[in-house]
Design a protein that fits this description.
The complex is a heterotrimer. Chain B is built from 3 helices and no strands. Chain B is elongated and about 60 Å long. In chain B, 64% of the residues lie in helices and 0% in strands. Classes of the chains: A mainly alpha, B mainly alpha, C mainly alpha. Chains in contact: A-B, A-C, B-C.
Chain lengths: 253, 116, 105
């Protein structure tokens, strides 16, 4: 298909889709409507399960099965990326250089790294109370770890981030979500049904399974994103096609 | 604000991202456009769930029932997809790197036949 | 008042997404995507969705642009390493030789 034909086809399709989309939007409840039947029911259900953050309750309690699907997609995507980006037989690894870092940059990284990690853990742990949770906190944790790369260099990052350990951690936390679901089944309820005491509203231990599922997802997202970024960093910094000998990148410093 | 302008904004984002994907000459750019298309769904969902005068559906510092809240269900849908979408973006970028290695190009329009 | 702010954020998001699509060069696109992520996070906060804003902030401004930058860097490097023996036509795929590396994420 030529590029012009493609654009022409797209224009026709976009005109049709756009026309129907505008027509559909005109019949939607207007922006800012006060009528949210599903929202109202979700709020009632979340309060009944003593979870202060209704969004977390929807994710990890009311629609936990849906989240199991989402985290399986996440796991599958991480697995696929790791498979695709592993060094092939015709590629060779060369160690990344040790690099000089400006002292101010190093100070910035060293001060910020523990702070960012604590913020990440806080966001995961308070998912059932305040905005946050496993998905957001996991990404914060994973990106926080990469401050080690800014503060030092790639070799240091590789030391604080043993890739194999995070591969395993990703798998275990993905599995633990299912195991907690099965525990609900074993205890006589349904899959992913809460079987823990609900606790006191607005306390750290409240909402039954929600904090645990939150933590499982937090670990999975954190280790998954660390694995992802690790593979991309390896590709960008260390993996060479070995048909041509890699230039010696080691500089004695 | 007019009743359905935010929805039209989401529709525009989707169509413009699709246009970018159709005309893209670099798969990395295509993946970036896909990220924009994903974002349009979040704008659509959260626009549909917004409630004028409502507050966030978090009751850690407001008493339940004291203020109307916006729809938490659409927020939960968008929230998980933001993170899952990023990992899928990573998978697509990994496929792009593989493609470059096997076929020597990342231009989708230069990829004609299948090669074994 | 909130409606005006939401309208401003919407206009910014629409402009940034159009810009991100029209930026054909991946490194520049990553920068525009990062701005789009920030705009979306702002819009979601105004729409009273702090949970989504938080994840959009972490993912949209940091993770996705970082992955795009790293991919671009890898593509550019493999073009350089492949040297003369592969098709020279693919050199334009990987953009300009200068520009950001992934270490800024």
């Amino acid at each position: 298909m030529t590029a012009r034909l493609r654009v022409w086809l797209f224009t026709v399709a976009a005109a049709v889709v756009g026309g129907f989309f505008v027509a559909a939007c005109r019949r939607l409840p207007p922006f800012g409507t006060a009528r949210h039947p599903y929202g109202a029911r979700a709020v009632t259900a979340a309060l009944a399960h003593r979870t202060a953050n209704v969004v977390s309750s929807v994710n990890f309690d009311l629609r936990a099965f849906d989240t199991l699907g989402e985290e399986s997609i996440l796991f599958g995507a991480v697995l696929g990326t790791a498979l695709l980006l592993r060094p092939a037989r015709d590629e060779s690894l060369s160690r990344a250089r040790t690099e000089r870092v400006l002292p101010t940059t190093r100070l910035f990284g060293v001060l910020l790294l523990p702070l960012a990690l604590v913020v990440g853990v806080y966001i995961v742990a308070h998912g059932q109370l305040s905005p946050g949770g496993g998905f957001q906190g996991g990404v914060v944790l994973a990106t926080a770890l990469h401050l080690a790369y800014i503060a030092a260099d790639y070799r240091v990052l590789e030391k604080v981030r043993p890739s194999a350990a995070f591969d395993v951690a990703d798998g275990i936390s993905a599995a633990s979500f299912t195991v907690m679901g099965l525990a609900g089944l074993v205890s006589g309820g349904a899959f992913l049904q809460n079987f823990l005491p609900l606790g006191t509203f607005n306390q750290l231990v409240s909402g039954g399974l929600v904090p645990l599922l939150n933590a499982a997802v937090g670990f999975e997202v954190a280790s998954g994103v660390i694995v992802l970024v690790a593979h991309f960093l390896d590709q960008a910094l260390e993996v060479h096609p070995s048909a041509q000998a890699p230039q010696p990148e080691e500089h004695p410093t | 604000m007019n009743g359905f302008l935010p929805f039209l904004a989401a529709g525009w984002m989707l169509l413009v991202a699709l246009y970018g994907m159709v005309t893209s000459r670099n798969l990395v750019h295509t993946v970036g456009c896909l990220a924009v298309a994903q974002s349009s769904t979040y704008v659509m969902l959260l626009g549909a769930g917004y409630r004028r005068g409502g507050t966030a559906p978090v009751f850690s510092d407001t008493a339940p029932g004291s203020r109307p809240v916006v729809d938490p269900v659409v927020q939960a849908l968008a929230l998980t997809d933001v993170v899952v979408g990023a990992t899928v973006t990573a998978l697509l970028l990994a496929l792009t790197l593989q493609l470059r290695k096997r076929h020597g190009t990342v231009d989708p329009q230069a990829l004609t036949g299948l090669k074994g | 008042m909130t409606d005006v702010l939401i309208a401003v954020a919407l206009v910014f998001v629409v402009a940034a997404s159009t810009g991100a699509v029209l930026c054909r060069e991946p490194v520049r696109q990553a920068v525009v995507l990062s701005a789009l992520g920030l705009g979306l996070a702002l819009l979601f906060t105004l729409l009273q969705a702090p949970d989504v804003a938080l994840s959009q902030l972490a993912v949209g401004t940091a993770l996705t642009p970082l992955l795009i930058l790293l991919t671009t860097r890898k593509l550019r490097r493999s073009t350089e390493e492949a040297g003369e023996d592969t098709a020279p036509g693919s050199a334009e795929d990987t953009g300009t030789p200068d520009g950001g590396t992934g270490s800024g994420g």
